[in-house]
């Protein structure tokens, strides 16, 4: 009875967490501050510019660009959920974040991450419809369908995060409050909890894994059909033209799903602080920066609209 009482007392002690970031070296922190500030500005400017280009050009009012616009909004939110706090911590001795702030940060990060997964899956289906069913494309991807697919991605992404954040808020934290990470994420919080996290881990595999793997499998199946259709095109020029319409998406998908699956779809016992601090930088910061660059550089319509807007067309 006394041991149980002592545990409950200890569980109420932790009211905030300490985010150590990616390095404790002052010189390295200064370099990281400059690097991530630059990346964050590129994310904000690149995705905002892409949104303006898509909204201002009538020839870009197509399903693919509608989903790309949604992706830009998600990428801005994705990085904003973690980078500003990380930048503040590099210049401050106080690296604390309240439990409520920690769970809020986790909620938004997982929300935007889940929505990004689902949107990439929807965009793969869009490319499948365009390449495999070109004559029925306007029917398969009519405006109402596009809006419903995008809405479903947002709703499922927010609901998925709600499950994880809600279950995390039920855990007790009494061992330690130092997070060896630059933001509040599921794996390091599991390590700090003095509660039984088995139910949370099952939820991560089943609910979170369902969103990630469901999107990944939808993307994989879409590309199997796409590649099969491209290989049936007789001319080399035709094959290259068809492949170029989905090359940008395939590049982003490979980077994003590869890192996020490795982070979340694995047992808690294999948690590695070094690996799990580095991987979110790839899918949560670098991918949102690369998305507008990849899609712009490999897309003639976007480049044409941009040059026209700059008065160089």
Q: What are the defining features of this structure?
A:
313 residues; mainly alpha; Rhopdopsin 7-helix transmembrane proteins; 3 strands; 75% helix
Fraction in helix: over 70%
Helix/strand-derived class? mainly alpha
What shape does the CA trace take?
globular
Please tell me the overall pLDDT.
85
Pattern of helices and strands? HEHHHEHHHEHHHHH
For the record, the CATH class is: Mainly Alpha
The named CATH superfamily: Rhodopsin 7-helix transmembrane proteins
What does this structure look like?
The chain is an all-alpha fold and 313 residues long. The protein has one domain: Up-down Bundle (Rhopdopsin 7-helix transmembrane proteins), CATH 1.20.1070.10. The chain contains twelve helices and three strands; from the N terminus they run H-E-H-H-H-E-H-H-H-E-H-H-H-H-H. The protein has helices at residues 2-11, 26-56, 63-80, 83-90, 99-132, 137-140, 143-168, 186-192, 198-231, 236-264, 273-297, 300-309, and strands spanning 16-19, 96-98, 178-179. It has a three-stranded mixed beta sheet with strand order 2-1-3. Helix 2 runs antiparallel to helix 4, helix 5 packs antiparallel against helix 7 and helix 7 (143-168) packs antiparallel against helix 9 (198-231). It is globular. Mean pLDDT is 85; it is low at 1-11.
């Amino acid at each position: 009875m006394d041991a149980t009482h002592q545990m409950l007392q200890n569980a109420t002690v932790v009211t905030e967490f300490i985010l150590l970031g990616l390095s404790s070296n002052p010189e390295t922190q200064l370099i990281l501050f400059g690097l991530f500030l630059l990346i964050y500005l590129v994310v904000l400017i690149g995705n905002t510019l892409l949104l303006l280009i898509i909204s201002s050009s009538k020839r870009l009012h197509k399903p693919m660009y509608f989903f790309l616009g949604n992706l830009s909004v998600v990428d801005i939110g994705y990085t904003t959920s973690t980078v500003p706090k990380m930048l503040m911590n590099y210049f401050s001795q106080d690296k604390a974040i309240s439990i409520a702030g920690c769970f809020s940060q986790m909620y938004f990060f997982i929300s935007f991450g889940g929505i990004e997964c689902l949107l990439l899956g929807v965009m793969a289906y869009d490319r499948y419809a365009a390449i495999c069913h070109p004559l029925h494309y306007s029917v398969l991807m009519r405006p109402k369908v596009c809006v419903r697919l995008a809405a479903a991605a947002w709703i499922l992404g927010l609901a998925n995060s709600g499950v994880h954040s809600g279950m995390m808020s039920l855990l007790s934290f009494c061992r330690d409050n130092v997070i060896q990470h630059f933001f509040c994420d599921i794996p390091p919080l599991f390590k700090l909890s003095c509660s039984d996290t088995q139910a949370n881990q099952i939820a991560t595999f089943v609910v979170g894994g369902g969103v990630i793997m469901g999107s990944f499998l939808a993307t994989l199946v879409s590309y199997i059909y796409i590649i099969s259709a491209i290989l049936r095109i007789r001319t080399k020029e035709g094959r290259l033209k068809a492949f170029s319409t989905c090359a940008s998406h395939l590049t982003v998908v490979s980077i994003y799903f590869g890192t996020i699956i490795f982070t979340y779809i694995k047992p808690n016992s294999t948690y590695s602080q070094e690996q799990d601090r580095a991987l979110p930088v790839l899918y949560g910061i670098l991918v949102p920066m690369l998305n507008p660059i990849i899609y712009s550089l490999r897309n003639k319509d976007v480049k044409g609209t941009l040059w026209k807007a700059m008065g160089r067309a």
